[in-house]
Structure formats: C-alpha cells, structure tokens
Amino acid sequence: MTSPNTPNTPIALITLDTEQVGTRLHAFTVIDVRTPAEYASGHLPGALNIPLDRIRRALPEIRHAARRGDILLVCASGARSESAGTLLAEQGVQAATLAGGTSAWAADGRDLQQPAACDTRAGWSMERQVRFTAGTVVLLGLLLGLLVHPAFQLLSAGIAGGLVFSALTNTCGMAVMLGKLPHNRPRAADLDATLATLRTR
After folding, report:
1. Residue 110 · residue 41 · CB < 8 Å
2. 3-state DSSP call for residue 181?
3. How many CA atoms lie within 13 Å of 152's alpha carbon, on the beta-carbon side?
4. How far apart (Å, rounded) are the C-alpha atoms in residues 162 and 154?
5. Reduced to 3 states, what is the DSSP secondary structure of residue 14?
6. pLDDT per position as a tens digit, 1-45
7. Is 89:26 a contact under the CB 8 Å cutoff?
8. Going by C-beta distance under 8 Å and a sequence separation of 6 or more, which residues neighbour residue 142?
9. What distance in Å separates the CA atoms of residue 157 and residue 174, rounded to the nearest whole number?
10. Residue 113 pairs with which residues in a beta bridge?
11. Rounded CA gap, 192 and 165, in Å?
12. Is 178:184 a contact under the CB 8 Å cutoff?
C-alpha cells in the first residue's frame, strides 16, 4: 500500500481477502466501521470501532495513523467499509478493505474478539436489525390493511420497494436510520478513547 497523498490525488481502494489479511493482521491498524452493538458482538482482534458516520470526525487521527502504517477497514459484509474507504480515498488517505467483512473472516474459521463479560453493548447485527424491522413493518401493514383500511398495505409495498432499491444500489436507508438509535451510537468516552489510541499509532 502507498502512503497518504494530498486530498486532490486520486487513490484506488484496495480490497484484500481473509488470507491476505490473516497473514499480516498485526501490521494493520484495523478500523471497524459497524455500530458499537455490532462491534461488541465480535470483531477482528485489535480492531478499533469508529462507526461509518463518524469517519469524517476521525479523519485527522486516521490520517495520522496512516502515515505510520497500513489502514484496514472492516464491516459486516464489506459494503460499509467500502464506503468508508472511498471517503478516505477522496481525502488522500490510502486504506484497504476486507472482502466479505467479519462474516467472511468468521466463515473462514478465524477468531473474532469477543467483548468483556461486563460489556453491555453486544447486540444484534445491523443486518438482523434491518430484517426484524422490515418484517415487522410488512406484517403491520398487512394486518392494518385487513383490519382497518386497505391503504395501510402501502406500508408493506413501500418496504418491498425499499428492499429492491437497497439490493440494486448496495445501500440501505433503513440501516442508516437504525444506526442513529441510542443503542447503535458510540459512547462519547469510547470514541474519544479510540481517537486517542489512533494518535499514538
């Protein structure tokens, strides 16, 4: 990987597979861009948690760490880390992403670091939260359409259309909204500690 460049220098995003990362995991500063709840459910050993929507805030610290070593971005499946990598590349910071994310890492038989027993942030993955929310709204729309007024079935149709759009664009608006819920937000002290760690890299 190359060193950071100026913000106007185009940088190509690098994607690595689990074998490429596994052989030199210790050489990376690993940044997990999932929500704190997802991060607490299991993450790559040594990974630091900076949710995707906090990457811009952490840019100075990430740039500092990138001057001293390679940055690896990780999420659940690779989509959010790719978005984070694109954002960093636009700012002249070189980073790599893990193809398939933590899901591929675990499927390859590699260890995920688990939270301490006293950590209360462990919870459902964002994918599971989205499935639960979408399913609940679809069922609610169907039930209200049958029991109250047929127009409520538009709720179900709206979710179906959203899922199709999500698949076509590889984005998820529902995940963005769910990510703003309190249990998916980083504690200020946790984020500050992560940024302080990056400054020492």
Report:
1. no
2. coil
3. 13
4. 12
5. strand
6. 544 454 455 688 899 999 999 999 999 999 999 988 888 888 999
7. no
8. 153, 156
9. 15
10. 43
11. 35
12. yes
**What is the phi/psi pair of residue 57, to 5°?**
-65, -35
Cβ atoms of residues 86 and 52 within 8 Å: no
pLDDT in tens, 109-148: 999 997 654 454 456 777 788 888 989 999 999 999 999 9
Structure tokens given for 132? 């639960």
143 token code pair = 């039930």
The set of catalytic residues is: 75
CA gap 174, 183 in Å, rounded:
15
> Which residues are bridge partners to 98 per DSSP?
16
Query: pTM value?
Result: 0.71
CB within 8 A of 31, min separation 6: which ones?
47, 48, 49, 50, 62, 71, 72, 73, 74, 84
Crossing angle between the packed helical segments 188-199 and 59-66, to the nearest 10 degrees:
30
DSSP per residue, 52-121: GGGTTTTHHHHHHHHTTSEEEEE-SSSHHHHHHHHHHHHTT---EEETTHHHHHHHTT---BPPPTT---
